[in-house]
Design brief:
Helices cover 75% and strands 0% of the residues. It is an all-alpha fold.
Length: 496
Amino acid sequence: MKKRKLGFWEIWNMSFGFLGIQFGFALQNANTSRIFETLGAEIDDLAVYWLAAPVTGLIVQPIIGYFSDRTWHPKLGRRRPYFLIGAILASIALCIMPNSGVLWMAIGTLWIMDASINISMEPFRAFVGDNLPDEQRTLGFATQSFFIGLGGFVGSAMPWVFSNWLNISSEAAEGVIPDTVKYSFYFGAAAFLLAVLWTVIRSKEYSPEEFEAFEKANEEESEASDSNTVSIKKQSSTGMIMALVGLISTMALAYFDLRKDLYILTVGIALVGLLFVIAAQLRKSKKENGFIHIMTDLLCMPKTMKQLAYVQFFSWFAMFSMWIYATSGVTSHIYGTSDTTSKLYNEGADWVGFLMGIKFLVAALVAFLIPILARKTSRKVAHLICLILGGIGLISYYFVSNPDYLLVSMIGVGIAWASILSIPYAMLTGSLPSNKMGYYMGVFNFFIVIPQIVAASILGFMLTAFFDTQPIYALVVGGISMIVAGFLTLRVEDTQ
């Protein structure tokens, strides 16, 4: 038994919810640093405050993936219950975020908002693997990229649109979020919920009985995946090594009195190591639960997934450096101001939001061209080309004096963004066991989240130690990282 090929509009409907999801992410990425700075955050602390987002994704996505693999609702199906719950929670958080009166409230709301968005987003990736046959998955992810680009463009540009087209003031008193940002978040909340509802209502899923038939048709694959498990001894030793490295690194930071940002990374390594040890001990006692499966399968990733992990690390390190420091980098380096109450600063901040929208617009326009480039060359070469263009775009921020020229820079970043959202997933799905699609899609998010945690841990330290607290240099570092990711793609074994 094989999955049937879906028509274009069926693929369109099952991907449409990403339009709303990206509204939420675009507003978060383009405006969070601005909100933090308005509420009194220092530039070199921004990365730490942003940690709520990646840490939330690190925890939420594999758990949601694991349980969505095992969910079936008679009306909503397997993945759609998570789409709906996440959309409702995220829409509420989007309305609260721009009304934060103090910094700690904004940080806490970011945590809740990102968790809610992740609840909706993670099953969407597995949705493509569930519903489409192998030969249509590249098209499925390209369609998602189109909606991500379109939603991201409109969502990122909303403050600029409210300010320049609707004449709503982008200025506000000290410590107050401008009305342009508030109205943008309200609009995004409505768009998020309505777009996800469209997919929930207009899409269908295979029943558990049909999935069982697919599993029998791919029995050899399932048996191979089930037998691919790590030994208890290796899991325990890996955990102990990680815990020891994390502990020693933490003690070194304390001894040399280095920035507290770095504790996030070292303590995180120690904590993951401890979780591996606990899982190994539970396996010795013959226990079975979700925690054991999650921590064991994490060490049993397919080879292609491991190779893609390095590509994702450097790609997302670059993107996160841009999201954190684009506003402060552009306003200080090009507009020449760091005064968040000034008209010039807010003009620059609005322009950065618009540039983020251009990135998404470019991604939407080229989304269906990247699969063509991949067919003419290969998926690896196509990804390499796109990431090099993105890296050059980020580095060029340093050399630009006229902010209008940043439109050209963002074209390269937009091309890279479209590829980041499609090519790695297209290469990944062919290597995953179908009975663990949701879980491994969630685990794959680790290699989006971990580089964000690393970026949040070290970028502030790098700016202070090496770059005289000039945020523009974080964008240059990000550009170099993206180019490195492109060349690492050539190492990936891509089975089509």
